[in-house]
Specification:
Blueprint (H helix, E strand, L loop, with lengths): L4 H14 L7 E2 L1 H8 L3 H14 L2 E4 L3 E4 L4 H25 L2 H20 L5 H14 L4 H17 E3 L5 H17 L2 H16 L2 E3 L15 H16 L4
Helix pairs in contact: 1-3, 1-7, 2-3, 4-7, 4-8, 4-9, 4-10, 5-6, 5-8, 8-9, 9-10
Amino acid sequence: MRVPAHSVCTAIREDIVSGVLERGSRLTEELLARRYGVSRVPVREALRTLEAEGFVRTRRHAGAQVAEPTAQEAADLLEMRLLLEPLGAARAAQRRTEAHLKVLRGLVRLGQERARTGHSEDLRSLGGWFHETLAQACGSSGLATLLTQLRHKVAWMYTVDPPALPAECWAEHGAIVDAVARGDAERARALTALHAERAIGQHRLRFPGPADLPVGRSVDRPAERVRNSQHAVNIASSPN
């Protein structure tokens, strides 16, 4: 039975994100095929996909290896996420289905309950499911795929501290869902932009490399740049 390449791709990606396959480590088709119990064909296809996503790099005479992103590249990822997640929420307000709303509301209820009772161990996975569902609700397979890839790469490059006030975080999730349910695209965009900005401060590079950063550059700058370029427009368009 031939294992689909996308299943192998998912397995390799998860091992890269979790650090099982370390940055810079060599990736040979033979060893990966043995590791995942598959033939070399789906491994080869998976490596091509992961290279396109930025998780793998192929170098002449060295073959495939796990990519080693710089601090600059990591900061750029956060900036892209700050720009695209509000767009996804706005599209979701226009294109979501009742099934999407049902799942989103259920996740918010669970998150608020866990936050209220102090069961923080479930909140990270619930938050991931919330943002994944919100991305799927945007009605654009291309945008949803891009948002999913961004989340995977951010999880690879950063550790994320839990929010100091998880109840407030889930109140923000609830407000986003309310805007999406009402079809208020600008409100959904503005609330998601604020939520994403606040979350930036919880991100810490897994592999800090001061030499990779230009003089005067900080990984907090993406939030500042987005705030200066479009945040005022978003806030002005949202009701008080």
